[in-house]
Amino acid sequence: MPHSHTLSPSDHLHDDADAEEPSVAFYGVAYVAIAAGIAVALWALDALVGVQMPGAATSIVAPIVAALLAGQRWAARHGSVPSSSAAWRFALRAAGAVLLVNLGVWLVIATAYGAAVPATGTTVVALTGSVAIFGAALVGVNRLFVTYGASSQLRGAR
């Protein structure tokens, strides 16, 4: 069914009724908001009560929650779980978005603090390996939780 209004550039965040896969834009906004909330909560825990939580231990929480929300949104709009191929496409694109956001944050922090990582063979291999492992984990998490979020939305709608 065609839309009754002209789409504005911001409508891609609000209207994915004709989309072939869950919205990566919605996921990205959710991811940034959740990751920022976690960062503030970790900072507050450290500043107020001296409890330090390693950031790496919490780094997978934001993608899990964002994928759940994207899956729930998909199911609410489509009445189904995304197809396997759509879920894999979403998982790959969403992982790419997370990696780009994290690269941007790292570049801003490194520039602000004048931090430099020497580009030796060892550091290049270590960084490449870390990004590959984190990227693969993100793809798996996004694939699993986007469909889980959709399934839970459908179960709750009954």
Secondary structure elements and their pairing?
Layout lengths: L23 H26 L5 H4 L2 H18 L5 H30 L7 H37 L1
Helix pairs in contact: 1-3, 1-4, 3-5, 4-5
Radius of gyration using CA atoms only:
18 Å
Major sheet attributes: none
The separation of the N and C termini measures 25 Å
Overall, the morphology is: globular
Q: What is the tally of beta strands?
A: 0
Output the structural class: mainly alpha
Order of helices and strands: HHHHH
Determine the mean pLDDT.
Answer: 85
Given the structure, what is the number of helices? Answer: 5
Strand portion: under 5%
Describe the structure.
By secondary structure, this protein is an all-alpha fold. Helix content is 73%, strand content 0%. The chain has one domain (21-157). It contains 5 helices and no strands. α3 packs parallel to α5. The longest helix has 37 residues, at 121-157. The chain is globular and about 50 Å long. The protein starts with 23 loop residues before the first helix and ends with a helix.
Task: Tell me briefly what this model is.
With 158 residues, this protein is mainly α. The protein contains five helices and no strands.
Task: Give me some keywords for this one.
single chain, 158 residues, mainly alpha, 5 helices, 73% helix, globular, disordered N terminus
